[in-house]
Write a structure and sequence with these properties.
This protein is of the alpha/beta class. Helix content is about 40%, strand content about 15%.
Amino acid sequence: MELINDVLNDPDPDRHWARLQLRSHLARHPDEPERAFLEHLVVTREPATRQHSFPAPGGSAIAESPEAPFLQRPTGVGSRKEIESVLGNRMLLTAFQPVRELPDGRTRGFEALTRFVSRDGASADVWFREAAAIGLGPELEIAALQCALNAAREIPPHLFVAFNLSPATFTDNRVQDVLQGCGLGMDKIIIEFRGRASSEQWTSLIRALEPLRELGLRVAVDGSGPGFTPYEQILSLEPDIIKLDRASSTTLLLGRIRTSRP
């Protein structure tokens, strides 16, 4: 409620659209302020370019607004204190982006995306990057994973859920414990690895993955874009899914390298 009041009482005329947006969500959900604020965050935390061009998660259109430029995200989240506050208070939300099969558009699963409840509106990438820079990267990634796994229990069991982790964090023993104790079927879980890793970290990652993959865990890597996984590491990992961005392809390559798996 404190965060909601901060938005509603903000006197900045450039944020008038955000106040109207939040009031409309509160009017639709008068007895569920958390849901109203979550819907508000999903809309207002998207980049300004998406505000003008793309539908919101779930398919509903976002109205174009002349005030959209104020939604540009800042480049930093502040201090260690802010990150520790997020960790201590679990100020994390999970948005689920549907993954659809072409050409019929059938939903096959979801990708879990972390959203942060904060006044500065910094993107998730900024939070994770700055947490890593001060040595809190694994703690923030694991907290986000726990939040996403809890939320994923509401997803029907025939649909998969993909979670993002860095290779270094996955080798933390806590991750193995969290995954095995989450209550989801291992064959429902996909772990997508993002970011670079040294040869030693990659070897440790493959070793840590093996028992979970035997239980049905699937693995995805980013095969293109600025944080792509090098070709040699892709071959050694034998991922189940390789993702390609729009600059490289208009599709996701759901081809399987690991032919020994059914």
